[in-house]
Design a protein that fits this description.
Elements lengths: L16 H13 L5 H18 L5
């Protein structure tokens, strides 16, 4: 592993069943094998969308 690789941090989160179902739907629709990968992609999309929004003061 190279020194420049971004290390992995593991976290445990609790989600309402309704949110988990939406994640599973996203995972199925995008043919993503692992739920962790679907969650990672959704977080990245959310962070990008939040960054693109104007800042609230």
């Amino acid at each position: 592993m190279s020194e420049s690789a971004d290390p992995v941090v593991r976290k445990t989160v609790s989600l309402p069943t309704s949110v988990w179902r939406q994640i599973e739907d996203y995972q199925f629709e995008n043919r993503i094998k692992r739920d962790a990968e679907a969650i990672r992609r959704l977080i990245e999309l959310g962070l990008k969308a939040a960054k693109d929004q104007p800042k609230q003061s």
